[in-house]
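Q: I'm teaching a short session on how sequence maps to structure, and I want students to see two examples side by side rather than one. Could you give me a first protein with its sequence written out and its structure tokens following it? Keep the formatting plain so it prints cleanly on a handout.
A: Of course. Example one:
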Amino acid sequence: MAANVAKALVDVPDFLRLGLMLALERRPTEPRGRAVFLQVRDIARQRTAEVVRELFPDLAEADVQILTGYALAGADGLFVHREINGDAVDLVAVFELHARLLFDAAPVCRPRPLSERPPAAFASIVGTH
């Protein structure tokens, strides 16, 4: 799935490029293109959530939504990274990495209270000591 999404973005980047610009813009009267982009994005969010539920049937719905939002935000960031750096970024490879990391994160996606201190190496990354 990740490789297919990345290939589609490489082949036809204009939809996401223009959609993100419209989504970030705030106007008194929103253009129709923004509404269409947000509808398509909601469909992508729903499909991603379905995949998460299928892969992790025991995951609480709140965690499914956290992981889904994180997946889409990460995909947006990877796309922007490719747009800025061009062909130097192997979008298929970074999307596959993103998918593997999401899969690994699913069992622990619920943020833990600060009282449950993470291992020291992780704490240095997230800033909780």
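Q: Perfect. Now a second example for contrast.
A: Example two:
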Amino acid sequence: MYVMLTDVCVFFIELRPSLILGRTMLIANAGDCRAVLGKRGRAIELSKDHKPNCTSERLRIEKLGGVIYDGYLNGQLSVARALGDWHIKGSKGSNCPLSSEPELEEIVLTEEDEFLIMGCDGFWDVMSSQCAVTTVRKELINAVVKETQRKESQPMDWQQ
């Protein structure tokens, strides 16, 4: 029996409309991470998971001579795209089923966009995109309420 442990990396960026309104954001993904935009409480997935058993990835892998065993590329990797894992990629220029070419997504941010969550598969394997957005939004609202209460409880400094 094998037990695999993974590190989990997650962070979010609060988007402030006054700073980014009308700006373009480019998401490039090649691997086991996902980017999710919080848009008025809804989860908008900005990247696709590159799992070998995803139809488009499976077709690409099989066309290049790769195989998928139990959801793993060549029986070794749980992703179909990665920047590392050179032992599987082969020599430069070879047709390898493991791709390092990122998928790109470009969006224009609006006032409705609240924050961006980026995390690795260890996080997304246990939490849905919507659950993550709901949790982050709730914590941001709680932080704003606490900060407002803190400011209101401080005595006014009339000399400023």
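Q: What should students look for in example two?
A: Point them to this: Residues 25 and 107 are 5 Å apart (CA to CA). Also worth mentioning: The domain at 10-153 is CATH 3.60.40.10 (Phosphatase 2c; domain 1).
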